[in-house]
Design a protein that fits this description.
With 391 residues, this protein is an alpha+beta fold. 26% of the residues lie in helices and 31% in strands. It has 10 helices and 21 strands. The strands form 4 sheets. A 10-stranded mixed sheet has the order 9-8-7-10-11-12-13-19-20-21. Strands 14-18-17-16-15 form a 5-stranded antiparallel sheet, with no helix packed on it. Strands 1-2-5-4 form a 4-stranded antiparallel sheet, with no helix packed on it. The longest helix has 17 residues. Belongs to the methyltransferase superfamily. L-isoaspartyl/D-aspartyl protein methyltransferase family.
């Protein structure tokens, strides 16, 4: 390994320590010793082309120090694009939905610290991806205790080869990470680097009593990282972590996401002034998380008016009801809706509650999954509870 690569690794580790993402000497040494560029020799960066279209362009290290420096920035690097949505728009640019990435190092470090591993812990990672996280875990625990699964056999084989380059051979398997790992092993820790709509039963069944599951649970509007302890009755209880971050959704197809079917929009029914703006929703992650509890079957999307091209932030429900506010004009905010006006009334009520409680952060909310598969969230200070839609 080159001296410049070692310097980049040490610099990244120092940066993660200063930011508070790394909180222990053990993980500091491991981030300084495991090369990210081995696992991400090429990636996609998004930029505007001359026509003003946001496109993905392929980048690579190509043995160049200035390019290698990009791999060691604290940022997520997209490594694959959904071929069903990809479209080449110029000689070197594609549009499309990302399907795999190398996670932002500060998010990885925060999750690994939250995982609270001990010597001898057996770990299952959901979503092998590039293999970089498996390498970090192998460096800490030894590769014989690290298991990982990914839906994409090509990604997995590439990760296996890159892990071997630096001397690691964790137990890797191809399969749906939301199902059981294909062995009879049980695990002290499960960490997921993809999002799921709820904690799968298979994870609970393969977790030892008093084991920990750390995963990104995605609701319709927002989601977040939860750290859950599993008891002997296969109940999970814990809460949202102070480590913030989101992951791409888990896939059941190796390369693409399924197309979502939605009901047609309800016709416009009216408009009125509102106390909640698009900026309020966009600016405050904990408030979006609260909205996800309050409106568990609702999506948050961006809407472009076909006539004027003006942009709005829109909440929409499965039955076609919707409500939107202008994306950029907050001077006299007006809400427009189709279907029931009650959708936006729920938003305003949640905004009032969140402000009245002092704008609590995400780690003030608990999360649990019962043995029958129901899941719920609650506000830790007073126990206010939200029963969440079945995943």
């Amino acid at each position: 390994m080159t001296e410049s690569a070692r310097l980049f690794m040490a610099t990244l580790s120092d940066e993660l320590c200063r930011s508070g993402a790394i909180r222990s000497r053990e993980w500091a040494d491991i981030f300084a010793g495991v090369p990210r560029h081995i696992f991400v020799p090429e990636w996609y960066e998004q930029e505007l082309n001359p026509q003003g279209i946001a496109v993905w362009r392929l980048r690579n290290t190509d043995g160049d120090d200035s390019r290698m420096a990009a791999v060691y920035r604290d940022q997520t690097l997209v490594t694959a694009i959904d071929p069903s949505t990809a479209e080449q728009v110029d000689a070197t640019g594609w549009t499309g939905m990302p399907t795999s990435s190398s996670t932002q190092p500060s998010l990885m470090a925060g999750m690994l610290e939250d995982l609270d591993v001990d010597e001898g812990c057996r770990i299952l990672e959901i979503g092998t991806g590039t293999g970089y996280n498996s390498a970090l875990l192998s460096a800490r625990l030894g590769d014989r205790l690290v298991y990982s699964i990914d839906i994409d056999p090509v990604l997995l084989q590439t990760a296996r080869e890159r892990l071997a380059q630096i001397g690691y051979a964790p137990q890797l398997a191809v399969g749906d990470g939301q199902a059981r790992y294909p062995s009879e092993e049980t695990f002290d820790r499960i960490i997921a680097t993809c999002s799921v709509p709820g904690i799968p039963a298979a994870w609970v069944e393969q977790t030892q009593p008093n084991g920990i599951i750390l995963a990104d649970v995605a609701f319709g509007i927002e989601g977040g990282l939860v750290r859950l302890s599993v008891d002997a009755e296969q109940r999970c209880r814990g809460g949202f972590t102070s480590t913030g971050g989101r992951f791409m959704a888990a896939r059941r197809d190796a390369r693409a996401y399924p197309r979502q079917q939605r009901s047609p929009y309800a016709p416009e029914a009216g408009s009125r002034p509102t106390t909640v703006t698009a900026a309020d929703i966009r600016s405050y992650y904990p408030f979006r998380l609260l909205l996800a509890f309050q409106l568990p079957t609702t999506e948050l999307v961006y809407h472009s008016d076909e006539g004027s091209g003006s942009m709005s932030l829109q909440l929409q429900q499965r039955d076609g009801s919707w409500a939107r506010v202008p994306l950029f004009d907050d001077s006299t905010p007006t809400m427009t809706y189709g279907g029931s006006v009650e959708l936006w009334e729920e938003v305003e009520a949640a905004w009032q509650w969140w402000n009245r409680e002092g704008r609590p952060a995400q780690d003030q909310f608990g999360y649990a999954r019962d043995a029958e598969g129901g899941h719920r969230a609650w506000y830790l200070p007073d126990g206010r509870r939200w029963d969440l839609a079945a995943p």
